[in-house]
Amino acid sequence: MSLIELAPITLPRALQSLAATALHDLMAVDGRPPADFSQPAGEAALVPPQSVSWRVFKNPVALFTGGVAAVILELAEPRVRAGVWDFTSFRDDPVTRLRRTGLAAMITVYGARANAESMIAGVRRMHKRVKGKTDAGESYRADDPQLLNWVQATAAFGFLEAYHRYVHPLSQDARDRYYGEGTEAAALYGADDVPRTEAELKAFFLAREPRLQCSDVIFEFLKIMREAPVFPASLRPAQRLLVRAAVDLVPPAIRHKLGLDHAGLRVGEHALVKLAGRLADHVLLEASPAVQACRRMNLPADYLYRRNRA
Question: So what's the pLDDT on residue 16?
Fold first, then answer.
């Protein structure tokens, strides 16, 4: 076990204010009041503060690249692709869709248990209305446990692999613990057989690889992610870089099957992404869900920044 002590970086007041505004926009989706992760005081989340998950999800570089990689893998499954593309607003309003998805991830990991369970129950009610047929005539429904297993597994993989690759390498024990931590939330979403270790995840991907297909939808999604105003205009080149970094996270055999061999990082770019990821992992934002959740649990704001890392 390698132990590394992290020193948090507190941004100047003006930058903290800008970051707080961005976080407010993320957590105030569809005109609702922003989510408050600091309440109710003392109520535990689905996973505890000492979990690997609480460390992974505090990093914005890991969240963005891991989230994009997860959607690439979701869209590779024809039934999931049809449900996502036919019933969501990715094409018409990608920024709002991304905010909804990001908020759901934050509530699942950092939200008080009652709030997380309520939010997930709402997602499940919505899933019951999503059903149809693929272009090939194959029936699907969004509450099918088999499809939910794929969605949950690809999301877990994307976020962890992004953190492991672009932020800080995690031990095998830590990676296995991370997958085990996500099983309760996955079950609440309706997934009944998600991988509990990295070895199980690799076997899961291998078994399902024959079903995965290249599709124009994947390339359309990547174009949207490169061009949508997710980042401020001045940071749009960084956004495109992180989209390429997300492609690199897709397992090589699947990346080849999807026709994405040349859509990943270019020579020298991996170091840039890793620098951004490591710097982001040290920046303490008072308004972030991670810090709010620490305060809810009566922990110091820098709890996730100073504890030793496995």
Answer: 67
